[in-house]
């Protein structure tokens, strides 16, 4: 990298277009969008933002479902030197208001289905609402009618994205990600990609760091790769698109596997599907194996990362997957597993996972205390319990804050959850701790069952007793219609802990 502008995301996107030329790049709801078409729209939209008064460093919130305009607006904002601030469209009004206020956003861009929500939330805030097409907001087409804007120079240290964490344990924090950090993470993901995959399907929200990284990684791909984009994930629509476009690769969070396994997969030709990446939360081994059994052409590869590391820490090496592991650390992420004193532990021992390197965030937005707590001596402490094996493969055991201490024994919820979903009638499971005066914390399980199952709580307890130790099995079980999830599709343990006992 010879200059500070060489790794700005805008420069990286321009270099990709120069290298690969014009081509079908993105399919969305009935048609292909060409690479030059998308780039030209971004150049004009950047001019529209500048004309609107958006300046370098300004934050602009994107509250949009997946569509080509998400990519166009993001590229336009980076071209104008502004900061993309994605917000999941599943956020509540209060959560969206917090993002707008905390980020100091000057504008918010939305799509018609969310225009009422955004205008209602932004009514008392000094932000311009773009999109919606209902006469109350500035049309996105008006921005796109401006003259093309040249690139506002940005260096690797400049802020590119302000992305708010899920906030399951309190108010969400803005994670400041630089051009250089995202660029390093995208390059690492591209390096780990399977070379014979040329058609991918993006069904993760682009407002999630995982979905965002998939887009940035495309800047580094050496060959033309085409992307099929879903507005949002639905299992039946996913299966139809795989068949229609002969999709070879996609990326899921674990809850998506569960929903797909409820579909008649054998009735569809999914033989083109070679690789399914999983991230965002631990994937039970049984779920991965069941998916591979029913889609024999596909290999499931689990990776690991978090918002604070530009989404990526480790990935499975091509051709050397180790099921149950999240792979090996990628370039740009130095990883250690350490004890409470900060000393690295030997292979096989458990400890906290910590990371440093160019993929690391700049810090939490306007929160030096939280940053200092999370980043110590240059290392970001993930809060995850993990272990390395003798060959350098990383395993994520659980979240430190989720560990249940029962009678002095550490109980990792994931261990119990994996044992529960091994039951053929249990489709999903979540385990939390409940304060108990006798044992300190009691293990409580919530499970959903497959259609037609008659499983009772006592049956679940007996199954667990056969598969985990006496210290771990749940004494209290609830069969529920659905496991609550956060906006980024992780188990909402905070909501489960708040549930009254029945």
From TrEMBL:
InterPro entries: AMP-bd_C, AMP-bd_C_sf, AMP-binding_CS, AMP-dep_synth/lig_dom, ANL_N_sf. It comes from the Bacteria. Residues 416-490 form the AMP-binding enzyme C-terminal domain. GO terms for molecular function: CoA-ligase activity. Keywords: Ligase. PROSITE patterns: AMP_BINDING. Residues 15-365 form the AMP-dependent synthetase/ligase domain. The keyword Hydrolase does not apply. PANTHER family: LONG-CHAIN-FATTY-ACID--COA LIGASE. This is Putative O-succinylbenzoate--CoA ligase (MenE). It comes from Blastococcus saxobsidens (strain DD2).
């Amino acid at each position: 990298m010879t200059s500070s502008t060489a790794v700005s995301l805008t420069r990286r996107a321009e270099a990709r277009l120069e290298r690969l030329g014009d081509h079908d790049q993105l399919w969305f709801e009935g048609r292909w969008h060409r690479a030059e078409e998308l780039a030209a729209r971004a150049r004009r939209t950047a001019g529209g933002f500048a004309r609107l008064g958006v300046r370098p460093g300004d934050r602009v919130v994107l509250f949009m479902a997946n569509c080509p305009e998400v990519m166009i607006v993001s590229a336009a904002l980076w071209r104008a030197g502004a900061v993309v601030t994605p917000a999941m469209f599943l956020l509540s009004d209060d959560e969206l208001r917090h993002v707008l206020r905390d980020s100091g956003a000057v504008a918010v861009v939305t799509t018609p289905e969310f225009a009422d929500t955004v205008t209602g939330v932004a009514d008392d805030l000094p932000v311009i609402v773009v999109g919606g097409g209902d006469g109350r907001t500035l049309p996105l087409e008006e921005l796109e009618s401006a003259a093309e804007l040249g690139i506002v120079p940005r260096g690797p240290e400049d802020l590119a994205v302000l992305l708010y964490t899920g906030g399951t344990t309190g108010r969400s924090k803005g994670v400041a990600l630089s051009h250089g950090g995202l660029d390093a993470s995208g390059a690492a993901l591209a390096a780990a990609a399977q070379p014979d995959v040329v058609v991918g399907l993006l069904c993760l929200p682009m407002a999630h760091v995982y979905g965002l990284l998939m887009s940035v990684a495309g800047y580094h791909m050496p060959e033309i790769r085409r992307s099929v984009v879903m507005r949002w994930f639905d299992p039946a629509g996913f299966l139809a698109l795989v068949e229609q476009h002969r999709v070879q690769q996609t990326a899921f969070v674990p809850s998506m596997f569960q929903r797909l396994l409820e579909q008649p997969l054998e009735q569809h030709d999914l033989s083109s599907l070679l690789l399914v990446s999983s991230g965002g939360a631990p994937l039970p081994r049984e779920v991965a194996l069941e998916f591979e059994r029913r889609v024999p052409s596909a290999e499931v590869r689990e990776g690991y990362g978090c918002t604070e590391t530009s989404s990526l820490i480790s990935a499975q090496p091509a051709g050397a997957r180790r099921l149950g592991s999240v792979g090996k650390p990628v370039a740009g992420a130095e990883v250690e597993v350490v004890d409470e004193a900060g000393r690295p532990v030997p292979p096989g021992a458990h400890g906290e996972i910590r990371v440093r390197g160019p993929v690391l965030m700049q810090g939490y937005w306007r929160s030096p205390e939280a940053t200092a707590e999370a980043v110590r001596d240059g290392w970001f402490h993930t809060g995850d319990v993990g272990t390395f094996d003798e060959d350098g493969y990383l395993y994520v055991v659980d979240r430190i804050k989720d560990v249940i201490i029962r009678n002095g024994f550490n109980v990792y919820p994931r261990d119990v959850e994996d044992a529960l979903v091994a039951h053929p009638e249990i489709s999903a499971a979540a385990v939390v701790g409940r304060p108990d005066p006798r044992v300190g914390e009691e293990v409580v399980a919530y499970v959903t069952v497959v259609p037609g199952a008659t499983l009772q709580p006592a049956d679940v307890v007996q199954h667990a007793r056969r598969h985990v130790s006496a210290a771990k099995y749940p004494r209290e079980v609830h069969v529920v219609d659905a496991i609550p999830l956060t906006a980024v599709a992780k188990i909402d343990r905070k909501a489960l802990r708040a549930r009254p006992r029945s």
